[in-house]
Amino acid sequence: MNKSLIKKNLKELTEVQELLYASGKYSLLLIFQAMDAAGKDGTIKHVMSGINPQGCEVYSFKKPSAEELAHNYLWRYTKRMPEYGRIGIFNRSYFEEVLVLKVHPELLPDPDPDQEFWNERYEDIRNMEKHMTRNRTVIIKFFLHLSKEEQKRRFLERLNDPDKNWKFSVNDLAERKKWDDYQKAFEDAINATASPDAPWYVVPADNKWIMRVIVSTVITETIQALNLEYPKVPKDMKKVLDEARKELEQKDV
């Protein structure tokens, strides 16, 4: 049932993505945040499998480079915002700046930030998203909510299957020990940055197929709500097209 539903959703998503690309009126930013092993990579792979690659870009943000550290903390994200007509996917995003760094404040220049520091970062993010949505970038934020028990099962699966060993990092266990800190950081970030124009969707992630159905449905319905149309051909151009059609229909062409 879930597989047939997601197949239907992917067909519809392919159609509306083509419309988004052709119209060139809006861009769409999809943000995926989650704990390790929640299935961000697999969700992006499956949900976007039918998308035209020309109209989609995926970015995965790792440790910042020297150039990125020489700018404000949002710079490396804003430079990757999608063009009109395209879908941009952030596999992790600027929210790492209020998630990982909140759990690991020792990574900050000032390792002892107060609550005002985090409030200002939330405000920065809200203001940036407001600016983007005002300028026709539609933002959808997904938190793939994995249970601690299911994360343990998936970690063990990676350790027990030699073909999946590469997916496991020793650091995964260290981060798992900070589970409660991360849950609180996610809760604070979601509550502080959810808005009607840039909503958060908290998606149950223990069942991968249900998660993918929800994500694909949200994306498709969001694009459909834009009421986009294919570009209209000007009247003078229609005459040119009619002449081209007549020429091609001739047998000797």
Relevant terms:
globular; five-stranded parallel beta sheet; 51% helix; 11 helices; alpha/beta; 253 residues; Rossmann fold
Structural overview:
A 5-stranded parallel sheet has the order 2-3-1-4-5, sandwiched between helices. The protein has a single domain, classed as Rossmann fold (3-Layer(aba) Sandwich). It has helices at residues 2-23, 40-47, 66-69, 75-78, 100-103, 115-134, 148-160, 170-176, 179-193, 208-224, 235-249; strands at 27-34, 56-60, 87-91, 137-145, 200-204. It starts with a helix and ends with a helix. The model has no long low-confidence stretch (mean pLDDT 93). Helix 1 (2-23) runs parallel beside helix 10. The protein is α/β, with parallel strands linked by helices and 253 residues long.
**How much helical structure, as a percent, in the residues?**
40-55%
CATH H-level superfamily title: P-loop containing nucleotide triphosphate hydrolases
Described by the principal axes of the CA atoms, the overall outline is globular
What is the second-level CATH architecture? Answer: 3-Layer(aba) Sandwich
CATH topology: Rossmann fold
Helix/strand order, N-terminal first: HEHEHHEHHEHHHEHH
- Biggest sheet record: 5 strands, parallel
Summarize the structure.
The protein has 11 helices and 5 strands, in the order αβαβααβααβαααβαα.
